[in-house]
UniProtKB/TrEMBL annotation:
Chief place where the protein resides: membrane
One GO cellular component term noted in the UniProt record for this chain: plasma membrane
EC number(s) from the headed UniProt entry: 2.7.10.1
Species per Swiss-Prot/TrEMBL record: Trichomonas vaginalis (strain ATCC PRA-98 / G3)
Topology relative to the membrane: Single-pass type I membrane protein
InterPro entries: ALK/LTK-like_GRD (IPR055163)
Organism lineage string: Eukaryota, Metamonada, Parabasalia, Trichomonadida, Trichomonadidae
Protein name as catalogued: receptor protein-tyrosine kinase
Keyword field contains Cell membrane: yes
Length: 208
């Protein structure tokens, strides 16, 4: 999916199939500060990303395009442009109106929202018409859920995926870290036919 112009239908289906999605931040704009908003790029993450003024809005659970943030806006006289919005579950939103004033578009982009199946406050794609969160509409249609979850935005300290330290934000592509919590899992599966009973035992060991 890391393409300049991904197929929108494929991207939409890809995001809808995921049980966890992290929001990314928006791009900054050069130039002087303007009344419309700050020139800094705003962080992604959380259930709703932070908005930058009245026209550049953070993605949330029901607003913003699935998996993609809006492009920045540029003036007709090439006198500066706004920062692009970050993607995530639902990307940042650019509603800047057309204007030819010098420096009008010098405003940073916003980030996208995050989604975790089972996290209260999230709204899954199969409940996209719901306007208010509840215990059920956060759950992905697959039925897979996470428990004891926490969503952290790009301005907060978060555990580093590389070691036991903490970082603020992450530069570059997204990254995940999975830690095994059990030494082993022993399960039994039984298959029954008309004449025989088959039993298989599976053991998954924690790698060292």
């Amino acid at each position: 999916m890391n393409k300049d112009n991904p197929d929108q239908n494929v991207l939409k289906k890809s995001i809808e199939s995921r049980i966890i999605v992290a929001g990314s931040g928006g791009g900054a704009s050069s130039g002087d500060e303007r009344p419309l908003g700050k020139i800094d790029g705003f962080p992604g993450g959380n259930i709703s990303a932070i908005s930058n003024g009245a026209y550049v809005l953070g993605g949330n659970q029901i607003s913003g395009k699935l998996g993609i943030g809006d492009d920045g806006s540029s003036s007709s006289n090439n006198e500066g442009a706004s920062g692009g919005c970050g993607s995530g579950y639902r990307g940042g939103i650019n509603k800047l109106p057309s204007n030819s004033d010098s420096g009008y578009f010098q405003i940073g982009g916003t980030g996208g929202s995050s989604y975790i199946s089972g996290h209260f406050g999230c709204i899954s794609p199969n409940h996209q018409n719901d306007l208010v969160e509840n215990k059920q509409n956060s759950i992905h249609e697959s039925g897979y859920i996470f428990t004891d979850t926490k969503i952290i935005n790009g301005q907060e300290k978060m555990p580093s995926p590389y070691n036991d330290s903490f970082i603020i934000g992450n530069i570059g592509n997204g990254i995940g870290r999975i830690t095994f919590l059990y030494a082993y899992i022993n399960s039994c599966v039984i298959f029954k036919s008309n004449y025989y009973l088959f039993m298989f035992s599976f053991t998954a060991l924690n790698p060292t």
